Amino acid sequence: MAKNSPGYRCSECGWTTAKWVGRCGECQAWGTVVEEGAKTGILSKVAPVNLTAEQQAKPITQVAFTSEATHQATGVGEFDRVLGGGIVPGATILLSGEPGVGKSTLLLEVAARAAKSGKRVLYVSAEESASQVRLRAERTHALSENLYLASETDLGTVLAQVEATAPQLLIVDSVQTVASAAVDGLAGGPSQVREVAQALIRTSKERDLPLLLVGHVTKDGTIAGPRMLEHLVDVVCHFEGDRQTSLRFIRSLKNRFGPTDEVGCFEMTGEGIAEVPDPSGLFLSRSSAAVSGTCVTIAMEGRRTLPVEIQALVVSTSSPNPRRVTNGVDSSRVAMLLAVLERRAGLKLTDKDVYVSTVGGVRLVEPGADLAIAIAVASAFHDKPVAATVAAFGEISLAGEVRPVTSGGQRENEATRMGFTTLITDTAGSVRQALTRAFDSAKGAREREIEAAF
Fold it and tell me: Which of 86, 125, 213, 398 has the CA that lies 20 to 30 A from 158?
């Protein structure tokens, strides 16, 4: 039989070893091997159990399907969009994000709307007192008689609250601050997070109770605790946003019941969090005069199209190492585009400082923004503005070719809806031809303005 003996376990992948090592032998992570009682020895044989009629495996076509297993709307449209239509009964959703980004505010809004629709909701706050949550609820108009509030950090007490309240929606804020008395270690440790998550998920599955968990993130942006936590839950969502702006995005990183390419858009206001169902126009400047160094691209955020204005500034420098400063775009991608512009389009940028930024704080990571970045840099280099009716999207290769990107038809439809009449895409062929077309469009626009004036 197996016996308990001192051992060490990796908090990331669960790999065990008899002696402590600094680096996990399985996942190669550093500093994740901690002391923990591990079972050693080999079980000679495991006796099979007698299966009942209900436990017998069935053909998948004979498995009962109920309408209650479908998505149920939460009342927050942008959140439902990311989840695939709503919350599935018995599903566990993990919401992560930076401190102060608005995770608790969003879940309190979800709880309030569910409570106002007639559902009994239990909100367990393990980080704030009940009075603090009540103050926020008053400010955001989230008060309801069906919304029950408890401030607990003990797992046993939380489970007792579930038994006493019998909620139809359970929210725990957060999983890293709840601890079990049956497990050694501080709250937030790998063993505690594992035990708390397993107990809550087990209760959720047994009761067909939707469960929303808040998860802390580390300094590098990953969810704190064992990696097993992300495997246990059904949905993993990440709430992100720039503290300098009020705009917030929620993305689905894992979803067993829906797509993982949807994005929800919110705005933080003085009265809580508000949905932004049509964010088009939020990332465009309000300047009416033509300014050099700007170009609009049509980006894809999940299945949603967003017109985003990219701004560039090119200035001469005497420094042997010119600066390359970016905001909202990938710095390595911009460095590659500058090399392509110098080699394939004849722009001498080795003695220039280049600054590239997006409007509104949005972050672009897709290659479809390459062409707009190149046009903005070239416009700033020549100090020639691009017409306000021009939009560009396309990937630029190292050979200077403009390659097509996904959802081209959807991007074109959104550009037309927003009033962009000149689209520069992969039909331009090369980056040099695309730049020529962009500046020709600007020249034609200025000529039409002069003719209209006379």
Answer: 86
